[in-house]
């Protein structure tokens, strides 16, 4: 068996997993960047029997499965991946399995992004290196309102951070109850009310057909001109063009973004030129602890597949 580990941008995948456990039955290759369109992707992945997809960066539609006849096991980092057509995988006899995720990586990064955004830390740090001094006036978070769109594992941790900072925490999601919100230290409100009241809006939802485009021009228009938007979940939850327009016009104070419609973000994307946009290259899940867990679970998934006892299955392949 040949196993491909996708999106190893830092070149650490082979060092952070105990891949020798799979030897000599499995050969492991780490691929270090985006591969491109479906033709190049099909050509590059054709030799592999198993693949680890890192998050939702690489789409696996039906057309790709049709061009990967050797593929039998697809592991995704995490237990959900909107970029994988699970039915098509099943139809082509491909077992799809997930991994666990270290739950602290993304909320910790979100907290750092929020603090850096409202206190203009990147700009002031750069100014210190170029001889400048005190160019901005930030805001404090104590006494402000943190609005959480989504109050699951990550959102609940953000609620705790908000409480530590002395913030009022409000939350909304489609199925959120008063009791669940209160248990996390938040108050449940309507989505529009949250957008209008929050000083910082932070998104913590899975990408789905229901959440895609959830925050569009209308929703952004409800936010205060002094408010900030943070998205460390998935880019398509926010209408990117509408967000650019609101940032350009100064209709919101700024945005902290770790996720984008297209990743890596194109070099000429308008977000890159906005002073009120703080951008990170999808680092939410990029922590050593998370990588080690993902790779350990990938090894377990391969071992389970070879033994005929797959773990953390996300589909039921035909004939399998």
Question: Which keywords apply here?
Answer:
320 residues, alpha/beta, 7-stranded parallel β-sheet, 5-stranded parallel β-sheet, 33% helix, 15% strand, globular
Strand sequence of the main sheet, in spatial order?
Answer: 8-7-6-9-10-11-12
Query: What value does the average pLDDT take?
Result: 96
Rg measurement, Å: 21 Å
Per DSSP, the total helix count is: 12
Helix and strand content put the structural class at alpha/beta
Number of strands: 12
What can be said about this structure in brief?
By secondary structure, the protein is of the alpha/beta class. It has 12 helices and 12 strands.
Write up this protein.
This protein is of the alpha/beta class and 320 residues long. It has helices spanning 13-16, 38-45, 62-65, 86-91, 105-118, 121-129, 153-164, 178-183, 191-197, 217-222, 240-249, 288-307, and strands at 2-5, 27-30, 50-53, 73-76, 95-98, 145-149, 168-172, 187-188, 200-203, 228-231, 254-257, 277-279. The strands form two sheets. The chain has a seven-stranded parallel β-sheet, with helices on both faces. Strands 2-1-3-4-5 form a five-stranded parallel β-sheet. The two termini are 17 Å apart.
């Amino acid at each position: 068996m040949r196993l491909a580990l996708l999106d190893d941008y830092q070149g650490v995948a082979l060092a952070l997993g105990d891949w020798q456990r799979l030897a000599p039955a499995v050969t492991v290759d780490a691929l270090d960047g985006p591969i491109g369109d479906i033709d190049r992707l099909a050509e590059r992945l054709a030799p592999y029997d198993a693949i680890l997809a890192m998050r939702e960066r690489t789409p696996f539609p039906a057309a790709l499965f049709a061009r990967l006849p050797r593929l039998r096991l697809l592991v995704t980092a995490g237990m959900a991946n909107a970029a994988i057509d699970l039915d098509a995988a099943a139809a082509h006899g491909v077992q799809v399995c997930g991994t666990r995720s270290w739950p602290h990586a993304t909320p910790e990064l979100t907290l750092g992004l929020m603090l850096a955004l409202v206190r203009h830390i990147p700009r002031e740090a750069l100014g210190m290196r170029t001889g400048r001094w005190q160019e901005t006036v930030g805001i404090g978070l104590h006494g402000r309102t943190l609005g959480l769109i989504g109050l699951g594992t990550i959102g609940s941790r953000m609620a705790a951070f908000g409480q530590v900072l002395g913030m009022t925490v409000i939350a909304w999601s489609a199925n959120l109850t008063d009791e669940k919100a209160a248990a996390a230290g938040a108050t449940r409100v309507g989505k529009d009310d949250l957008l209008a009241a929050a000083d910082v809006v932070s998104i913590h939802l899975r990408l789905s057909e229901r959440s895609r485009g959830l925050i569009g021009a209308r929703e952004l228009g409800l936010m205060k001109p002094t408010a900030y938007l943070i998205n460390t979940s998935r880019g398509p939850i926010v209408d990117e063009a509408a967000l650019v327009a609101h940032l350009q016009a100064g209709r919101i104070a700024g945005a902290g973004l770790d996720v984008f419609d297209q990743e890596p973000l194109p070099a000429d994307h308008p977000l890159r030129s906005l002073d009120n946009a703080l951008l990170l290259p999808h680092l939410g899940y990029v922590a050593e602890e998370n990588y080690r867990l993902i790779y350990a679970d990938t090894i377990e998934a391969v071992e389970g597949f070879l033994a005929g006892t797959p773990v953390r299955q996300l589909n039921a392949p035909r004939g399998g």
